[in-house]
Amino acid sequence: MQALQFTKTGDLASLQHVELPDPVPAADEVLVEVRAAGLNPSDVKNVLGRFPYTTLPRVPGRDFAGVVVKGPQALLGQSVWGTGKDLGFDHNGSHASLLTLPARGVALMPKSLSFAQAASCGVPYTTAWDALERSGVKAGTRLLVIGAGAVGSAALDLAKARGAEVLAGVRRAEQAAELSAHGIPSLLLDQQETLGEQVNAVFPGGAEVIFDTTGFWLPAAVAALATFGRIAIIAAPVDGHVQLPALALYRRGGSVVGVNSLLYGSEACARMLEQFGQWFDDGLLPRPDGLRESPLSEGLLRYREVNEGSTDKNILLP
Questions:
Q1: Each residue of 243-259: b (16+ CB within 10 Å) or e?
Q2: Structural domains present in the chain
Q3: Does residue 240 carry a pLDDT above 90?
Q4: H helices then E strands: how many in the chain?
């Protein structure tokens, strides 16, 4: 099979496009013919050595969509999608033409999605789903999502499908205009000192849940939080430290929820995908768009572009 593989970490030059023997699934596994695989920033960081538990040599890639070609009879020939912490770290991942993983680690794909669209969902949507679940977002919840990248956009769409009152916080006017075109109101973020005032003007009394996808707004978010509110975070400054106004947080009865997609293996992620996947077919979730599809042979270039700051939604096609 063709694959991307790295044999050492620390430099993207170690990632190569290679031919490897076809993997053989174990008794409790499936063999998936990968039709499309998402490229996430964490895949790039993996090659650069940011995850010390990665074993080598390794095929990277967490998100995939494809067809089961070996495994239980009920899954043979089925279109499936998936993601998980095991893929690309201690088990070969999705940036290859074939992939093995536990049979319970795949979910049936929504019929309304293409393979590329399904492959774009894994990490962003399961991360967003976990944030919404663990911070208690439901119908009527006043939710502020800071940042409109892949995870932020997924959180807004999933929360809207749940019936929450959503509000986005973004830095650029063009982001606000794009969100407005999709029926999502937004704030243009300015100074951290004014966030509380901005949010209270839209949500009197504050937001019940604030999801900061950027890593920079946790201290400011406390002033925008409703009584007994929750702040979910998925990132932090490079040194990992922030100055938190603890007095203001506990006076509000507030709490902070840390969200880490690498706590969930492929089986847990498959159960998440099953919970909201039908929403695409029901028209409750918009289908992913703006994807940049590239053959796997151009994967090395796409990795370099992501490392240099590209925000394209890259999909690799074996």
A1: eeeeeebeebebebbeb
A2: 2-109+288-316 (3.90.180.10), 124-258 (3.40.50.720)
A3: no
A4: 10, 15
